[in-house]
């Protein structure tokens, strides 16, 4: 999730564990800093934009690596922070919890994290919460701000911070149950309009867990369905778009294609834009302006051939019109997303004169 959320979660966890020992302010500050440590992998060098995309949230987010790192960071704190000398094991546990909770909430997002590396190398990403969710973050932020302004632990404060952690944790768990319900309802809605897609995946829409983007995936096309918990009896609009698998048929042996196919779990599409084959991860963003788009091939006289991967930023991710549409759909009111009727930006509908 976002850096603010990681900071306040780490601060809240550390305050519960160490607040009585070293004071609320110092415990919150240490925990907030520890809660951001796993994301330092952004400074690791990568060979190309695709590697930077698929290998972020890698081994630094593994709960097994955290178990090895916790005594190292913990011992450093024991030696540097007055008041922790006689609480070595509690300090180790606090460090581990600050690291591990970071990875766990990252695994709740669609981007996911390689939380079980190296024993299970694939990223785990539920997609049941958006990367920024104020309903989760704001209660944590409020209690952490209180901790910074309050010097000593009190029974009243302890009750409040334990309550906030219970509520926010329940929110995360509830999102998984809501996601399962939405996928079940989406399957029924797809069945009414035609064949049920091969794969169905519900992803929390921006900033809430009441509105969901559901992707119905087939080999040659994908469908977007936006479902609100406040929808009435009328079925929501379904938007269908081509995936253009023939564009990447010549690229399937390339490293860039294989990495993107693996990381996206097959939820991707291809386009031919200005002579380049652009591959998009369908899970993150809205059609056509997906957050992660990469040019991995180019059309030549000899056909489509691999190229050095480039990040494609040619499509605007959201428009002012989208914000209004999101608000309408969140409240359960019918609304057509103009950017998908039809997909006016899908230039890849043009035939490819020569593929491989």
Structure description:
- The chain is an alpha+beta fold.
- It folds into 2 domains: 3-174, no CATH class; 243-349, no CATH class.
- It has 9 helices and 10 strands.
- It has helices at 3-22, 24-34, 49-55, 63-80, 88-107, 134-149, 155-193, 255-264, 320-330, and strands at 199-204, 211-217, 221-228, 238-242, 268-273, 276-281, 285-286, 289-290, 293-300, 303-311.
- The strands form 3 sheets. A 4-stranded antiparallel beta sheet has the order 1-2-3-4. A 4-stranded antiparallel beta sheet has the order 5-6-9-10. Strands 7-8 form a two-stranded antiparallel ribbon.
- A hairpin with a 2-residue loop joins strand 9 (293-300) and strand 10 (303-311).
- Helix 1 (3-22) runs parallel beside helix 6 (134-149).
- The longest helix has 39 residues, at 155-193.
- It is globular and about 70 Å long.
- 40% of the residues are buried.
